[in-house]
Design goal:
By secondary structure, this protein is of the alpha+beta class. It contains 4 helices and 7 strands.
Length: 120
């Protein structure tokens, strides 16, 4: 598992980690003590759609990833959309590492079922 804790924000190294889909990361957005671990759900898997509002475009996601995890007894602790800099992607957070790794396993299974090409 890789961590953003000691990486300067908005550097090439920071963006590389933030843009890594289906990988368990530590310390995203400074969440070190609470909601420590997160997984970026690729937009193809989350079926992102953008909605125009007066204050800017806002992403919306299908609940497939969350529902799939819940069907396997895994609940995420927080979800949010990454900033546009990192692709407006859905990111799920987990308070403990074991739950994060279990979620990652099941999310990769879902990705394969949906035909998403996993990187090696």
């Amino acid at each position: 598992m890789r961590s953003l804790v000691d990486i300067e924000k908005y550097t090439e190294a920071y963006d590389e980690l933030m843009d890594s889909p289906l990988e368990l990361l530590h310390g995203v957005y400074g969440y070190v003590e609470e909601n420590k671990y997160s997984i970026k759900i690729p937009n193809e898997l989350a079926e992102v759609t953008m909605h125009q509002f007066m204050d800017g475009d806002q992403p919306s996601y299908s609940r497939d990833a969350e529902d799939y995890l819940e069907s396997h007894g895994i609940n995420y602790d927080l979800s949010l959309a990454d900033y546009p800099r990192n692709g407006d992607t859905l990111r799920l957070f987990f308070n403990d590492i074991e739950k994060g790794y279990a979620a990652l396993y099941h999310l990769k299974q879902l990705a394969v079922k949906k035909g998403y090409q996993l990187e090696q």
